[in-house]
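Thread: Newbie trying to understand structure tokens

Hi all, I'm a second-year student working on a class project, and my supervisor (Dr. K.) asked me to get a predicted structure for one chain before our next meeting. I've only ever worked with sequences, so writing a 3D structure as a token string is new to me. If someone could post the tokens and maybe explain what I'm looking at, I'd be very grateful. Here's the chain:
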Amino acid sequence: MDARLTFTTGADAPEVFRQLMAVGRTLREGPLPAGLRELIALRVSQINGCAVCVDLHTKEAAAAGESAVRLHLVAAWREATVFTEAERAALELAEEGTRVADAATGVGDAVWARAAAHHDEEHLMALVLLISFMNMVNRLNVLTRQPAGDHVPARFR
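---
Reply by user tm_fold:
Sure, no problem. This is what the structure looks like when written as tokens:
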């Protein structure tokens, strides 16, 4: 499969795309632990069907120390016993924040309360920004049919 557009991060990249990549770097440097950040990015990407991001975040999560079992079970996190309550609350927030059109109320108060019970305001802000960012990047990749499979961890650092 060939991409409809080729994104480049070099000097010839459009300014807006370079700024977008800078946002991604800033989120990677934020307060969320690398493993949680990658699990959230992976789950959002799975929901959106973004193959290139599933490839990228699976490999980045493994490089951050996530086990194969946890990576295989992230799509079924509700039934899996390998995630902490804080991770489960973050994954639930990620799902509702990604599927906002599926519920008339968007992210429900109960989901927010569970996330807030496990994450302070700094982490909640980082989660909200990461979930929003991943949804945008997923849409860019799906719209332009970016191929998956060749990501090398740490490529974008």
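A couple of things are worth pointing out once you decode it. Residues 15-143 form a domain with the AhpD-like fold (CATH 1.20.1290.10). The two ends are 26 Å apart (CA to CA). Feel free to ask follow-ups in this thread.
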